[in-house]
Design a protein that fits this description.
Length: 138
């Protein structure tokens, strides 16, 4: 019996052992590669300027969240050196008939990534009335 136990000890001693460090090393390299890929994707996303339609949709959502009023239309949309400027029309007060509803125009300022940095009401009007200040192209 002792001969059998000696044989198994000898065989175990002769088997090449894989170093636990070798496994960790390859796992570490793979982990680093994955982290680099993730970092590259984040950089691409961070460096990518949003498309105009993305900015427009996001601005409407941000204004609705801040004011509690749903935007009806965007009457002006412009890219500036500092980001974006929009003029968004909202219904402030619904009336019957609809042409008597009170509307408001908000000037909305966004940073280059499309995040709202400020807004202000620039005019208030009845839906069915022409604005005398805006006739004739300003």
């Amino acid at each position: 019996m002792s001969n059998t136990s000696n044989t198994s000890r000898t065989q175990n001693a002769q088997k090449p052992r894989s170093s636990p460090r070798a496994g960790k090393s390859s796992q570490t390299r793979e982990s680093r590669r994955e982290n680099q890929r993730d970092s590259d994707q984040e950089d691409d996303t961070a460096n990518r300027r949003p498309k105009p339609m993305e900015v427009l949709r996001h601005a409407r959502g941000q204004l609705a969240e801040l004011t509690g009023m749903q935007p009806e239309s965007v009457s002006s949309f412009e890219q500036t050196e500092d980001g974006w400027t929009l003029e968004i029309e909202v219904m402030e007060l619904a009336r019957v008939p609809d042409t008597m509803s009170l509307m408001a125009s908000y000037q909305v300022e966004l940073d280059p990534e499309g995040e709202l940095t400020g807004y202000r009401k620039v005019r208030r009007y009845e839906r069915g009335r022409a604005d005398p200040h805006r006739q004739g192209g300003r």
